[in-house]
Amino acid sequence: AATLLATHPDATAAQMVYTIVGAPTHGQWLLDAQALALGARFTQADLNEGRISYRGTSAGADSLAYRLQAGTGPLGGTQRVTISVAAAPAPTVRATPLALDAGASLSVGSAALSASHAYLDASTLQYTIEARSGEGIWLLGDRVLGIGDHFSQADVDGGRLSFQAGRVDPEAALTLRVDTGFGPGSASTQLRVVVTIPSVHTGALALSVGDQRPLTLAELQVGIGDASDAQVVYTIEALPAHGELRLDGRTLGLREHFTQADVSAGRVTYKADAQRDGELRLAVSRDGGVVSTPVTVQIRVAAVPFTPPVPARAPAPAAAASAPTCRSAWS
Prior knowledge:
Number of helices: 3
Low-confidence stretches: none
Structural class: mainly beta
Radius of gyration: 42 Å
Number of strands: 30
Shape: rod-shaped
Distance between the termini: 174 Å
Largest sheet: 5 strands, antiparallel
């Protein structure tokens, strides 16, 4: 209102009507954030209430060409208000590396990715994906993002950007360009994700029918970053059909759990009921959360070795009686 003010003794502010007769060349005139086209009208009351604004899209000198009328009567010919549009400064952008376990997902919030500008809001700051590396899926809501796709700082602030880690690559990254949408101001950054890939060692458990043996570190050992053995949780997904997996003597079933600490302490055992090989399939996670990797332990069951009976020994023959010795004395 301070830039454009018209009064008339016989008209109220709502009766002072501006009609746009020349389109701006370096921006847009807006009424309540809606663009005003050539021929559009607004009033002095709109100006007084702060409903009229200008948004520059490129640098240069611009103007609003208008005709004014009070009520039904025109007031002069075409008039202009001028505005100088400076180039938009580049936004400031900050990216902080993220960390998660293999297979896990996380929301990428403003603590990890943040762009700001002196006078533009979050919805105006647009990210463009220029490159990506590593395994994993970047999502905006439910939509998978790829090279050339866009999202805004408002999307980040609202928790709509997320990443789902893969199970092989220890690192993933997005190379991003941030634009203001108005003028040449832009900035670039890279958002890195460090993925903890578990260390996995498995071996075959060999035993005979009827035997019960503990699982040892030779058959099952998984490490997940800095997680303790008690935090490495196994969930049973499949069991051999001819045997029992036990924890401290209690039979375990599908979807039940035990930990690496249980294995290390010898509390997990397997008893073979028949000469049938099988496999124990387990999902591994940190603290029972998102599964980071699946593992399989092979079960090898041998028959009880045949031991031939030992023949009974025949009794030893009795020793022959020795002949008596006789002595005679002749006198």
